[in-house]
Write a structure and sequence with these properties.
mainly alpha, 4 helices, about 0% strand
């Protein structure tokens, strides 16, 4: 053992489901042994922790905008008229969508390989 390059041992406990996932990914990798596979994952793999709270807020904002647009369309169909206030409201809502989207995208980390 003293001549080994890798002298540090790691013990890992997995649930049955986690072990199954590891086995499937290992088989798909076509690597020769699990130790090499796990070392590769440690060195080159990625772990993503995604916060979806902004996306939920964005979806809620889009739902509100969709509701407002439906109300405006219903009013326009009922009266046959297009009001400046309605057009202004649609433009403001679209600006809000674009602003929210730009804000979300600017906070996304870039992944470099």
């Amino acid at each position: 053992m003293e001549n080994r390059v890798r002298q540090n041992r790691l013990t890992l406990r997995l649930s049955d489901d986690e072990l199954y996932i590891l086995e499937q990914k290992f088989k798909a990798s076509n690597m020769k042994d699990k130790s090499s596979f796990l070392r590769y994952l440690i060195i080159y793999g990625y772990v993503y922790d995604i916060d979806y709270s902004e996306l939920r807020e964005y979806n809620a904002a889009l739902a509100k905008i969709g509701n407002n647009l439906n109300q405006i369309a219903k009013r326009m169909n009922a009266t046959g008229n297009v009001y400046k206030a309605d057009v202004k409201e649609v433009k403001e809502l679209m600006q809000k969508v674009w602003h929210t989207q730009k804000s979300m995208l600017s906070r996304q980390p870039s992944i470099k390989q």
